[in-house]
Every structure is written in structure tokens, then in C-alpha cells.
């Protein structure tokens, strides 16, 4: 009998920080850099309808929290006072903690990082 799983993942994700724009010697070119604080929470709930698994063990829930710091590095060309086009890299390092509701109350924790985190190939910016 095939296993069937239903997964629900409500989450909250927030980055709070500031970017600086430095004009380079080329007309209209900006170097963008900055730091931001990161916080992510998600709740993953996996459920199976497999009758071979006892009813009280068919659902498992994971609560995960991430906190860390990220950076922004980018290059933009200003083609008007309001619009710019360019690209960014957003590397980060996070500490994460996960707890699940299994019989053992298993907990996981550690660090994760990404050097090329959230690469934007092409970004279009509008200034208010």
C-alpha cells in the first residue's frame, strides 16, 4: 500500500536591516552593501493515513526557529532618478533549533550558512 502524506508548513520570515549606496566612478553605477538581522519560524506538520501506523503516531510536528545575520552586496545602474537595474548577493549565517513532538521529544540544533544566499540575477528597483 502506498504511503500518503499531508504536509502543512505555516511560517514567518523577516529580515530587518539597512543598505548603503556608494556611487562608483562610472556615471550612474552604485555599489550596494549592508547588513540585516534574520528571523525565521516555521511549523511543519506531517500526517499519514497509513493504517499500518498506530493512529497516535500518524502525525508529527516540527517547530523550527532560525536567527542570524545576513549581508547584501550588489551593483546597480541608475537609468533614471526613480529606476535602477542590477543584481545582488545575500550571504548569511544562521543558528537554527528544531523540536518535534515524537515520543522522544527530539531536538536538533546547529548552524547553516550560504555564501550565495538569495542571488538575484536581475533586480529592478524603484525609488519613492
The class by helix and strand makeup works out as mainly beta
Q: Looking at the structure, what is the overall shape?
A: elongated
What composes the largest sheet? 8 strands, antiparallel
Total helical elements: 0
Q: Residue-averaged pLDDT, rounded?
A: 82
Q: Percent helix among the residues? A: under 10%
Strand content: over 45%
Describe the fold and architecture.
The chain has 128 residues and is an all-beta fold. The chain is built from no helices and eight strands. The chain has strands spanning 5-8, 11-23, 29-48, 59-78, 83-89, 92-100, 107-114, 120-126. Strands 1, 2, 3, 4, 5, 6, 7 and 8 form an eight-stranded antiparallel β-sheet that branches. The N and C termini lie far apart (58 Å). 5% of the residues are buried. The model has no long low-confidence stretch (mean pLDDT 82).
Layout: helices, strands, pairs:
Blueprint: E1 5-8, E2 11-23, E3 29-48, E4 59-78, E5 83-89, E6 92-100, E7 107-114, E8 120-126
Antiparallel strand pairs: 1-3, 2-3, 3-4, 4-5, 4-6, 5-8, 6-7
Primary descriptors:
single chain, mainly beta, elongated
How would you summarize this macromolecular structure in one to three sentences?
The protein has strands at 5-8, 11-23, 29-48, 59-78, 83-89, 92-100, 107-114, 120-126. It has no helices and eight strands. Strands 1, 2, 3, 4, 5, 6, 7 and 8 form an eight-stranded antiparallel sheet that branches.
Amino acid at each position: 500500500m502506498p504511503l500518503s502524506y499531508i504536509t502543512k508548513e505555516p511560517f514567518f520570515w523577516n529580515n530587518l536591516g539597512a543598505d548603503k549606496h556608494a556611487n562608483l566612478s562610472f556615471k550612474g553605477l552604485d555599489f550596494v552593501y549592508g547588513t540585516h538581522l534574520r528571523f525565521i519560524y516555521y511549523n511543519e506538520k506531517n500526517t499519514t493515513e497509513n493504517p499500518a501506523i498506530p493512529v497516535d503516531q500518524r502525525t508529527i510536528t516540527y517547530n523550527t526557529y532560525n536567527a542570524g545575520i545576513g549581508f547584501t552586496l550588489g551593483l546597480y545602474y541608475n537609468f533614471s532618478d526613480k529606476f535602477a537595474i542590477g543584481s545582488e548577493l545575500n550571504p548569511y549565517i544562521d543558528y537554527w533549533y528544531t523540536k518535534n513532538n515524537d515520543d522522544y521529544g527530539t531536538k536538533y540544533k546547529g548552524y547553516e550558512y550560504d555564501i550565495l544566499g538569495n542571488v538575484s540575477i536581475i533586480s529592478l528597483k524603484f525609488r519613492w
